[in-house]
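Ticket #4471: structure export looks truncated?
Reporter: QA, pipeline team
Priority: medium

Steps to reproduce: submit the single chain below to the structure queue and open the exported record.
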Amino acid sequence: MLAENLGNWAQQERQEGRREERQKAERRALEEKRQTVRHLAFGVFSDEQIAEATGLAVDEIAKLRIEDKH
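Actual output as written to the record:
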């Protein structure tokens, strides 16, 4: 019983670690998209074109455009 509980606990911890790593990777990918938008796209493409190319929402592009002006 104890060994089974320890095995289950270890498995849950590994799953949680993998989930956290996926979340970190997703956050990094999103930030990379935002940086791409900031550096390359403003002034050249419309918000809709940027959204289509990056997968970000149009309102997110608009927010980034405003942030970039400050």
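Status: closed, not a bug. The export was complete when the record was re-opened. Leaving a note from the reviewer for reference: The chain has a mean pLDDT of 85.
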